[in-house]
Please model this.
Amino acid sequence: MVEKILVPVDGSKVMERNVKFACDIVKALGGTMTLIHVVVLPASMEPGVPIDPTPLEQAGARILEAAQKIVEDSGCKADGILETDFGNAGHRIVRVAQEKGFTLIIIGARGGSKIVNMLLGSVCHTVAYNATCPVLIVRP
Amino acid sequence: MCAHSGEESLIVAPLETTDVGPEMFQKALVPVDGSPVTAGLVAYAIGFAKKAGCSLTFLYIVDLPQTAPAAEIEKQKAANMKIPEESRQKAAEEGVASSSMVEIGKPAETVICMADREKFDLIILGSRGYSRLKRLIVGSVADKVMEHAPCPVLIFR
Model:
């Protein structure tokens, strides 16, 4: 079975390390690689205040671009998916993986959150528990 | 003045890279418990090992206190050896280098210590996919391993 691998990226400090690691795994296993970044909109804005998602989406597109550059530098290639959602990005990642038939998700144990004593990041946690396909948790 | 674009600021510092070749995984630890999930897990682990070119170690853990009498420990080890051994045979038939072992201890702690001590570079875990409520009540081995493992963890679904 050809692996169809989904790699969530978040633009955090450890992203470069995680993406490179994912590239090495893709090289070893074979298969295709797709990067995904979920732009999380603030859900707790005052009612009636319209949210303009454009700046956030632009920032998200830049994160995806940066990740794609890391992939190219590692000698791989990957597609990119940019999604926008409220709440935890993990749920959207799980849904995309299911809908598009990915066979493996490679995700970093920790991302951008500042709470260093949390052992698994919240997004990783959500993905690990809810994904319908195998999940490979990598540690920087 | 630095004329870098905004893109640079996303990656704060270039992290040192570890140069890993195609054999990035050398040896994987596969805890098995003989439950219905095991067959699927073992088949998946074998498929993964073939592609990644790593060896597999099937581990069965008997949840006994370390203070149990030595005779009892030996008896339990011998009695349960066939669970990881069956998996090892399956892997051997598929041409994957593999071994099997039985250890005594708390399941999650034993897996984590073993991975650390024996320098495993991957743990392949089965998950029973408990509901959120059930997970709260029973907790899970996968849960602890995932959080405390010293190496990457592959959760099989």
